[in-house]
Specification:
The complex is a heterodimer of chains A (426) and B (311). Chain A is α/β, with parallel strands linked by helices and 426 residues long. Chain A has a single domain (55-362), classed as TIM Barrel. Chain A is built from 14 helices and 18 strands. In chain A, helix 2 (103-116) links the parallel strand 7 and strand 8 (120-123). Chain B is of the alpha/beta class and 311 residues long. Chain B has two domains: 9-134 and 286-309, 3-Layer(aba) Sandwich (Rossmann fold); 135-285, Rossmann fold, CATH 3.40.50. Chain B contains eleven helices and nine strands. In chain B, the strands form two sheets. Chain B has a five-stranded parallel beta sheet with strand order 7-6-5-8-9. In chain B, strands 2-1-3-4 form a four-stranded parallel beta sheet. In chain B, helix 4 links the parallel strand 3 (102-107) and strand 4. The chains are: A alpha/beta (426), B alpha/beta (311). The interface between A and B is medium-sized, with 21 and 27 residues.
Chain lengths: 426, 311
């Protein structure tokens, strides 16, 4: 039996309401004991005095680009990025080529993930065949093969009837539909938030209503058919107000926000830097305020990165032609610490819940906690240590990040996956 | 003053705009002489890179460069044949390899001149980028207004038409407000960009109110294909509501100037009577365009003032 003893750290396990100095004993793949002053002669001891010990993070929204766009990212490079960011479980979106819209594709992701063997890469299947929004994908088949949710992410399902049927059908499997809320008729050729800055820069705007109308529509449908809806990358105050209303009505709806949407705003696009081009676009300072408040009030349940790797040839082009999205796995935790915890928006425990137990619950995963008997997926971090984001910092194959050159607090020190140390910061 | 680039009037101070306009006055003298050439930029190379069709602006820049004795070449770029994603970096490399002093660029995507200016050693002059800025057009508009009115400060200027898609409108707003004009934008509510009033302009959707008592009307070209995107219902309705004809022009001050950056849709945004009428300064704008572009090239190219009058 292989044992590891993590000593003297501050254990933060929101699922069990724990935030205190405790030791954790790992035995093979599982957590054997969590308590004060554990001693075990056979265990390899890791002393983490002054550091925080958390459940391995879960990112329920990443793009690993394999198959189809391996020049941007692969399951292997994406897994390395995840590990550097403290994530031991990620859910990959199905907008690959071919898309994850059948059993074989789900099995391919699972196989690749096992071959890489670093973290759990859990596939999300499509809602519709080929993500075209026309006919339902074989959702039962996807679920049986191991898909943890379904989403046409990158595309919104524009046909309301299909949304209704998908939501109804998913009830049999108790998996959520993750909607990319964007009325394409309204967003059109827009490349940034519509407002003063799009006027200033002469760039086509994406109105907030493009997101909000779909948030409202899906919530109304989900409420009526009593099914489980998850809103991906929420970005506007209006969407949040609709979401808050829905939760109050008892609709089974959850939502995620990305670190960039609570950190960056539209004014940062003034240099036409395509690393600030994302979808949904960066919004206003008021939207950021609303997002922070909603995180605090648990209206927004989850922080997910929408890790979207793109190579230079996709980004270093005319603004209108540049791809949307940025990588996020490696910068997520430092941004959560710097922007939310250090600024007293969230307690450490609440912040960690949004990247551990909350996504686990939404996806019915037995993860995201340090309870005795759980898989020993553990992330240790020094939240007071300053790091500088450089291109070399990234494990990802791509480095499309607006945070390069920035300094922030929160360094990942050790990552353990099923009792195996997979990352140690030297 | 020494410029490195001219990307937009947003970044140019009032004093610098005035210096350009003053200098353009002396260059206008030059181009009205029988021998229209000065040696100011002898030995300098100026390249016109137009990624969007244009005859008037390109020719104007070419003439301006040649009248300053610079070597001016046009780089024909067929945008259709260029693979998406390679264009700009290829452009950068081409420019760097050719030892060019000044690049004049027009591009359909906002931000491209800025992008180039950050990556090449040459100076960059924006000849119009997407819906962003067209600084030399605004400078020549202001030059024309100042020449006719003797000043800009305190004048009421109405810019009429498709403000949303117009780089001419944006550059004019920056320039005119810096020089103290009261600027109004007038157009259908679908073609007024969000929060434009934060740039210090008044917004009108009623053209009759919008041009009442103004000193200058700058009429923008309406792209007829906008109609297909439901930005206005029919061309006829646009002409009826926003087309400037003699009848409407009477609402402005009697000596109101009529400007148009061209090319015009006669009978749509401007009636033939107005285009060719006494108040129209549209042809003079073209002449002034060369003088203003000479001034810009001169300042950016580091021309020597002393050499100006040597023959």
């Amino acid at each position: 039996m292989k044992k590891i003893l993590i000593k003297n750290g501050i254990v933060v396990d929101p699922a069990n309401n724990i935030e205190e100095k405790l030791d954790i004993l790992i035995s093979d793949e599982k957590i054997e004991k969590v308590s004060k002053n554990i001693n075990d002669k056979d265990a390899k001891i890791i002393d983490v005095s002054g550091k925080v010990v958390m459940p391995g993070f879960i990112d329920m929204h990443v793009h690993f680009r394999e198959p189809g766009f391996e020049y941007k990212e692969t399951i292997e490079s994406g897994s390395r990025a995840a590990v550097k960011g403290g994530f031991t479980t990620v859910c990959c979106m199905p907008n690959t080529i071919p898309p994850i819209d059948n059993q074989a594709m789900v099995e391919f992701i699972n196989l690749k993930s096992k071959q890489v063997g670093l973290i759990d890469v859990l596939p999300i299947g499509t809602i519709t065949k080929e993500r075209k929004g026309e006919e339902l994908a074989p959702i039962g088949e996807l679920f049986k093969a191991g898909a943890v949710a379904i989403s046409d992410d990158g595309n919104c399902v524009l046909n309301s009837e299909i949304v209704r049927r998908a939501l109804e059908y998913c009830k049999m499997f108790n998996i959520p539909i993750i909607e990319h809320c964007e009325d394409k008729n309204l967003s059109g050729e827009g490349v940034m938030n519509e407002g003063y800055y799009s006027t200033l820069l002469g760039l086509k705007g994406i109105p907030k209503a493009a997101e909000e109308t779909i948030v409202a529509r899906d919530i109304l449908i989900a409420g009526e058919v009593a099914s489980k809806l998850h809103i991906a990358h929420i970005s506007t105050q209006g969407s949040i107000e609709i979401l808050a209303w829905a939760k109050k009505q008892g609709v089974n709806v959850t939502a995620e926000v990305t670190p960039h949407h609570f950190t960056l705003d539209e004014s940062m696009l003034t240099g036409y830097d395509t690393n600030y081009k994302m979808n949904p676009p960066l919004r206003t300072k008021d939207d950021i305020k609303a997002i922070k408040k909603a995180l605090k009030n648990d209206i927004i349940d989850v922080i997910a990165t929408d890790h979207a790797p793109h190579a230079e040839l996709d980004k270093d082009v005319e603004f209108n032609n540049a791809a949307f999205g940025i990588i996020g796995l490696e910068t997520a935790f430092p941004l959560i610490i710097t922007e939310l915890v250090m600024q007293n928006v969230l307690t450490l425990s609440q912040a960690i819940s949004k990247i551990t137990i909350n996504p686990a619950k939404i996806l019915n995963l037995k993860k995201g906690t340090l309870s005795v008997g759980s898989d020993a997926d553990i992330t240790v971090a020094d939240i007071n240590k300053e790091i500088e984001i450089t291109e070399e910092f990234f494990g990802s194959r791509s480095s499309n990040s607006p945070f390069i050159g920035k300094k922030m607090k929160g360094a990942i020190e050790v990552v353990i996956k099923k009792g195996k140390i997979i990352y140690e910061d030297k | 003053m020494a410029f490195k680039h001219l990307i937009g009037l947003q970044d140019v101070s009032k004093e610098d705009i005035e210096e350009i306009l003053d200098l353009a006055v002396s260059f206008k003298d030059v181009i009205l002489r029988p021998i229209k050439k000065v040696p100011s930029l002898k030995g300098k190379t100026v390249v016109n890179m137009f990624f969007e069709p244009s005859t008037r602006t390109r020719t104007s820049f070419e003439l301006a460069a040649k009248r300053l004795s610079a070597d001016a070449v046009n780089l024909a770029i067929s945008t259709s044949s260029v693979v998406k994603g390679e264009t700009l970096l290829d452009t950068v490399k081409t420019i760097e390899a050719m030892q060019i002093d000044i690049v004049i660029i027009r591009h359909s995507v906002s931000g491209v001149p800025l992008y180039l200016s950050q990556r090449i050693k040459s100076s960059v002059i924006n000849a119009g980028d997407g819906m962003h800025e067209h600084p030399t057009q605004a400078l020549l508009d202001m030059f024309t207004i100042r020449e006719k009115k003797g000043k800009i400060s305190g004048l009421k200027v109405a810019i009429v038409g498709d403000i949303l898609h117009s780089r001419v409108a944006r550059s004019n707003i920056w320039g005119l407000t810096k020089l103290g004009a009261k600027v109004r934008v007038v157009g259908p509510s679908t073609l007024i960009p969000k929060d434009i009033e934060k740039l210090g302009v008044d917004v009108y959707t009623d053209v009759e109110k919008g041009i009442k008592d103004v000193d200058v009307i700058n009429i923008l070209r309406i792209q007829l294909e906008r109609q297909k995107k439901n930005l206005f219902p029919t061309i006829r309705e646009y002409a009826m509501l926003f087309g400037i004809n003699t009848e409407k022009l009477k609402l402005a001050k009697p000596d109101c100037l009529v400007l148009h950056p061209g090319p015009m849709n006669r009978g749509i945004e401007i009636s033939p009577n107005v285009a060719d009428g006494e108040q129209s300064v549209i042809e003079e704008q073209v002449t002034n365009g060369v003088a203003v572009r000479m001034a810009v090239l001169y300042l950016i190219g580091g021309g020597k003032k002393d050499e100006e009058n040597t023959d």
